[in-house]
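Q: I'm writing up a methods section and want to include an example of the input and output format. Could you take the sequence below and give the corresponding predicted structure tokens, formatted cleanly so I can copy it straight into the document?
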Amino acid sequence: MMRLPLIFLALTGALVSPALAHTGVNSATSFASGVAHPLGGADHVTVMVAVGLWAVLRGNSALWVWPTTFVAVMLIGGALGMTHIAIPFVEPGILASVVALGLMVALAADLQVPVGATIIGAFALLHGHAHGTEAADTLNGLEYMAGFALATATLHALGIGFALILQRIALRTAVRLAGAGCAAIGVGLFSGAL
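A: Here is the clean output for your methods example:
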């Protein structure tokens, strides 16, 4: 059962192209720009909401472990990017995260919490690195990353809230359909349709 999601993740990563959703160093210089940036990109909004949706489907400790893992590892990736430590396949990995995490929700992948956290953490590292390379290596860059972390956590909370509302009214299938929508957005970004 666990092999199918992991095989799919590997295949997704092999088929994607760069998300190209990153703005460059000049716009990554303040707390406000850090808050605003994730809200303006389909890849960011979709992945962050998908983490929240998937955490609700999994339940229990995943509700706090997975979003916390994403934010914490994203900040580590940001620090690596700010210090110019290269990580391969950042942009393709970001795009793969949109499709893969959307499919994890759509398939209601019931992975153990540490396994899910590992997958989420790998994608978070890439998201963080991309934004760390955009951030100035000054106090302004740290402010940008703090704003980015706040916006990311907020999007996770929105995904959790949305899924909890749907589950409360007995619409678990709707949560899975939202995951399919996340995956469709990823395919649209890959194909250039979005």
